[in-house]
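Hello,

Our lab assistant flagged a job as stuck in the queue for most of the afternoon. It eventually completed. Since we weren't sure the result was trustworthy after the delay, we are filing this so someone can double-check. Below is the sequence as submitted and the structure that was eventually returned. Let us know if re-running is recommended.
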Amino acid sequence: MSEEEIKLNATNQALLDEVNALYPEGTVFVQFHGKKSGYVRHDQATQKTLPGGLFIIVTDLTAPNYTASHELLHLLMLLKGFPQIFFQLSLGDKELDEQMMIMSTDLYNVAIHRVVVAEQRKHGLIDDQIEEEYWRGVEHTLTKEGAKDDDERTLRLLTGLDALVFYGDHFAKFADRFEENYPVALEAAQKIYKQITAKPIKSPFDMRRTIIKIYSLFDAQMQEWGLPALHNNEYTTVSPVLSERQLRLEMRQVFEIFYSDMKERGTTKRAYVGLRRSDRQNSFTLATPAGNSPEYFKRVYDMPVKKFLEEHSVPYIVRK
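-- returned structure --
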């Protein structure tokens, strides 16, 4: 299949039209450029912002319409106001920050995929062949578990969790393969999967709750294995979802601001983190104010939530 022969199918064309109706600046384009690897993974497309718009480039042509639809649905969810994640803090080590951002994004995507994959299945974009190619992607990503623990445990857990979301009710067809190759990771992933799928995702609020739950359950598993927790509840900013009533409350009623050990990204200054009181998740970060005065924080805590968020350009979602 050459790049010239690939065209978006009718479902993808309708998705692209829907994305472009919501996209604020320029136009979104889909391009195909690459070879066929024979397996499907969720890293087979990239996005580039160029003058005139956003280009989604499918970089592996094994299942081009599946991959294009996956990227379009991710974009559509952001355009429809689902929570986003931001990285505004640094641990002071560039490589460690890079690893943290990748892991946090992968866990965030597990939550997002609950909706994305359900939509793909609804539109008939996942068939037996795609399911087999996805399994080959898992095999390509992971080595088999051995008798001893190794440094791939975290990646196996992440991959297994995403696979459970991808296969959903179809997982039974592949259960034996997972059990044979990755029994420890599968058991841990199933434990988390059961808890994150206990409630449906019908709104941005449900999605935010699921993201936070995945972060905390993943950390619990890391600690159970004697591995360091990621602490994404503090490291990763998740856009808050607030009701009109909460937006009118004073900041002190909704958020708690604390002085973090982490730095503002790109500086050597320690940052302040705004944790949501109800779920202890990082919802915004603040630069250290000049003079670091108690009066400044008293003024912040006295402000209505909406006024503070808008003055500090903090993205938020209004809960319907």
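-- support follow-up --
The delay was a queue issue, not a problem with the job. The result is valid. DSSP finds 13 helices and eleven strands in the chain. The longest strand covers residues 255-264.
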